[in-house]
């Protein structure tokens, strides 16, 4: 059956817009909900002409009354500069937004997927990170509005599942990149590419030895859909990310190679609570979803750089004063 009514909260964002596009192509009736704090209408403008796509400007910290079969909750600023700009609002989005969408799912008997994050593991003491690891998170640090907000959202999802039998899914998303990233979101991939194509020195926080694992958007979208459509009622949480680990310095050198920028790196102090290592164990995703990433970093970076070169960065405002 390909005519499900699907709500995507945060559907005009980087990942959300690609998810909306895929769901529209599958023939579903897609409702995109977004308050456009960090997202761009240009991400979904090409979908507005589609008869099975609808856009609603709405903040999910307020109740939403719709009739839907599935809900993807991707609504929350995900870059440090964005979520630290208004940390109380960030926490409200994770907690009150989850309560509102879970209440909607309960009433409609809809399946609902929470886009959680690898940040629930904090600065991990185990490597790679498995889903049974409980994390090392600073509950009062500058990143806690996001980290603890997402952890609280997972708790809410599990409680609605246990108490009200709501059909939930929890995906822990690791670093994802690709076209439609906001040029000023402050994430490492977008920062490096923007600086390189503007012929500015690439800024590296710390000495560049910290690691990340980078997943191309198309791989992640397929993982989210497979989790939602899982027939065995597997609820997660499950890691979705690329298990190939790179240092930040290796990423910067790769961006320089593909853009031709040759300026020396600009090294700055590492931000507070910035994780030193980040790599997902995706054994569970392989076993339960038959999913693993297929796009190598080199290929994905080239496509992302091509997209950055194709846009007019002047059309994108820096949504916070931090970048």
Helix content: 25-40%
Task: Tell me, rounded to a whole number, the average pLDDT.
Answer: 93
Could you say which structural class the secondary elements and strand pairing correspond to? alpha/beta
How does the overall form come out from the CA principal axes?
Answer: globular
Largest sheet: 7 strands, parallel
The percent range for strand residues is: 15-25%
Order of helices and strands: EHEEEHHEHEEHEEEHEEHEHH
Instruction: For the largest sheet, list the strands in their spatial order.
Output: 3-2-1-4-5-6-11
- Separation, N- and C-terminal Cα atoms: 45 Å
Please provide the count of β strands.
13
Q: Which regions have little confidence, pLDDT < 50, spanning 5+ residues? A: none
Provide structural commentary:
By secondary structure, this protein is of the alpha/beta class. It has helices spanning 14-25, 80-83, 87-108, 144-164, 188-197, 217-229, 248-259, 283-289, 297-310; strands at residues 5-9, 29-34, 53-57, 70-73, 111-117, 168-173, 176-177, 203-205, 211-213, 215-216, 238-240, 245-247, 266-268. The strands form 4 sheets. Strands 3-2-1-4-5-6-11 form a 7-stranded parallel β-sheet, sandwiched between helices. Strands 7-10 form a two-stranded parallel sheet. The chain has a two-stranded parallel sheet with strand order 8-13. Strand 5, helix 4 (144-164) and strand 6 (168-173) form a beta-alpha-beta unit. The radius of gyration is 19 Å and the shape is globular. The termini are far apart.
């Amino acid at each position: 059956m390909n005519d499900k009514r699907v709500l995507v909260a945060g559907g005009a964002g980087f990942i959300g817009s690609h998810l909306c596009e895929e769901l529209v192509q599958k023939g579903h009736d897609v409702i995109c909900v977004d308050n456009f704090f960090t997202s761009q209408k240009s991400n979904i403008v090409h979908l507005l002409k589609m008869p099975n796509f609808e856009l609603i400007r709405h903040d999910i910290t307020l109740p939403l009354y719709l009739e839907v079969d599935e809900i993807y909750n991707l609504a929350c600023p995900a870059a440090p500069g964005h979520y630290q700009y208004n940390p109380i609002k960030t926490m409200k989005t994770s907690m009150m937004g989850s309560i509102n969408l879970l209440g909607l799912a309960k009433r409609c008997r809809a399946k609902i997927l929470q886009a959680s994050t690898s940040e629930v593991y904090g600065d991990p003491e185990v490597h790679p990170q498995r889903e049974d690891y409980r994390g090392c998170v600073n509950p009062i640090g500058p990143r806690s509005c996001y980290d603890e907000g997402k952890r609280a959202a997972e708790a809410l999802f599990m409680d609605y599942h246990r108490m009200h039998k709501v059909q939930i899914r929890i995906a822990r998303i690791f670093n994802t990149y690709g076209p439609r990233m906001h040029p000023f979101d402050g994430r490492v991939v977008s920062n490096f590419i923007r600086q390189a194509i503007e012929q500015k020195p690439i800024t590296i926080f710390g000495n560049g030895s910290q690691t990340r694992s980078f997943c191309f958007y198309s791989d992640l979208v397929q993982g989210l859909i497979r989790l939602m459509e899982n027939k065995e009622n597997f609820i997660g949480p499950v890691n979705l990310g690329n298990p190939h680990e790179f240092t930040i310095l290796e990423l910067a050198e790769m961006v320089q190679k593909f853009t031709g920028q040759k300026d020396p790196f600009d090294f700055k102090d590492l931000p507070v609570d910035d994780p030193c290592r980040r790599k997902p164990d995706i054994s569970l995703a392989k076993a339960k979803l038959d999913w693993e990433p297929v796009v190598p970093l080199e290929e994905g970076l080239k496509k992302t750089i091509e997209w950055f070169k194709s846009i007019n960065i002047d059309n994108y405002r820096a949504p916070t004063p931090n970048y």
